[in-house]
UniProtKB/TrEMBL annotation:
Residues 32-51 bind DNA. InterPro entries: Homeodomain-like_sf, HTH_TetR. GO terms for molecular function: DNA binding. It comes from Virgibacillus necropolis. This is TetR family transcriptional regulator. Residues 9-69 form the HTH tetR-type domain. It comes from the Bacteria.
């Protein structure tokens, strides 16, 4: 890594850490560029030299809150006997943690990150990956690091096709429906449309996801 890259990484870390502090103290909904700049000890213009939008800073700060999910996920998936069981267990763990902290998971997986965020965020990931994900298997890293929820879910289903539990044709349908169900429940919770605690929301969401998967599961 060049001196310039080291300096850039250091500056990113200042601003991300400042954003995390604001989330801890005031809540994610109160994060602003001005607040971040004040907390980090720089002016707002400096932040825009490193981040195009405040949503990108919130995104990376929110990733810091995935630690509980990251730690639990490998142990949960070990309970599964096959790839499809592991897929369902990964969804259950994801639902549990996302419904406990809906604002955080909305910021990571659903918030508007501006035009064509993939290239920019992929570049940021290359810098932060080791700090964020530590020593986890590639399968787990894919589930954690894939910010595009549809791709994340699809990757997990592909192994079930290889093992003969699903057909290629049904994977796309399962993927779309399960993602939409989770999105709908998260938005419902955030908008206070239904008063469900995290456990109740997880149970209802998993009931729908399991019904969808079992409907397309091949007999073996």
């Amino acid at each position: 890594m060049t001196n310039k890259e080291i300096q850039m990484q250091r500056m990113w870390q200042y601003f991300v850490d400042a954003t995390v502090e604001i989330i801890d103290q005031k809540g994610i909904e109160n994060v602003t560029i001005r607040e971040i700049a004040t907390k980090a000890g720089y002016n707002s213009a400096t932040i825009y030299n490193y981040f195009q939008e405040v949503s990108h800073l919130i995104f990376f700060a929110a990733l810091k809150y995935l630690n509980k999910y990251i730690k639990e996920l490998p142990e949960q998936m070990e309970k599964g006997d096959n790839s499809l069981d592991k897929y369902l267990l990964s969804w259950e763990s994801f639902c549990k943690h996302s419904f406990e902290e809906p604002e955080i998971y909305y910021a990571i997986f659903l918030a508007n990150l501006g035009e064509k965020p993939e290239e920019l965020l992929k570049y940021y990931y290359n810098v932060y990956q080791s700090d964020l994900f530590g020593d986890v298997t590639e399968d787990i890293k894919t589930l954690i690091a894939e910010y595009n929820l549809s791709t994340r879910s699809r990757n997990a289903l592909d192994k079930s096709v290889q093992e003969g539990f699903l057909t290629k044709e049904t994977v796309a349908v399962i993927n779309e429906r399960t993602v939409l169900i989770w999105q709908g429940m998260l938005i419902t919770i955030l908008n206070n449309r239904r008063h469900l605690n995290a456990e109740e929301a997880t149970n209802k969401t998993m009931q729908h996801i399991k019904e969808i998967v079992n409907n397309y599961r091949l007999a073996k």
